[in-house]
Sequence to fold (266 residues):
Amino acid sequence: MDWGMKNRLSKIIRPETGRTVMLAVDHGYFLGPTTGLEEPGKTVEPLLQYADTLMLTRGVLRSCMDASKNVPIVLRVSGGTSILGNLADEGTTVSMRDALRLNVSGVAMSIFVGSELERKSLLALADLINEAEEFGVPVLAVTAVGKEMARDARYLGLACRIAAELGAHVVKTYYCEEFEKVVKNCPVPIVIAGGKKIPEREAIELSYNAVRRGAVGVDMGRNIFQSEHPVAMIRTVREIVHKDLAPDKAWDLFNTLAREKGKAFA
Ligand code: 5RP
Fold:
């Protein structure tokens, strides 16, 4: 692995702990102005200092983010669909040239294993990896889960392993029962998405269980920016991911931090 690739990877997965808290705000590329991301710049601003890296689209990066902020970027480079269409019918939307011009630390693309467009998405991932390798840019493969798919270790394990076999440097998937099997069978680091908003206490448990069972961290969006206390949430997730803070103590921390900014949770 060349120096550039190692250097960029070290900006995504922190060498101090081997872990990462990625703040995901790329949802608008197919969801539009989803709750909490109506004004991405305002949403991200108070959270940035607690994120190891930011995952977002080219458009939001350029139009909403302060270029002087030194936060590593993982750029969403697939898209072309919307919530109104066939989400699996994504293509590549950003050239490697433009990604490099934006000085990103990594690029991200979804794969749709099991969909009728799986081949298209997997070959697009392979093409992206071929080009990214030339420039020492890590690729984060995002294992999208179709509505008809079971979000279980068998399916997620298949999707993660395929992504890794194609050469992805990091894989983003979801936490599931027997998650340790998904991690064991995937030869590259795994981060978990948080998925739809769940109660903070559950999201805390999810984060803890994922890293305890081998994830190198989270690439979390809605469970942070749709929380009533986003800063308290990302700070708590940070303590879990980088210091293995146990769920009970993490829940106490969340409430303490939330109290600092308004009413606490019961
Ligand atoms: C959306 C994505 C998000 O980056 C990923 O799902 C993480 O966000 P969340 O924690 O809200 O699920 O890929 O397409």
Observations:
- The first helix runs from residue 3 to 12.
- DSSP finds twelve helices and ten strands in the chain.
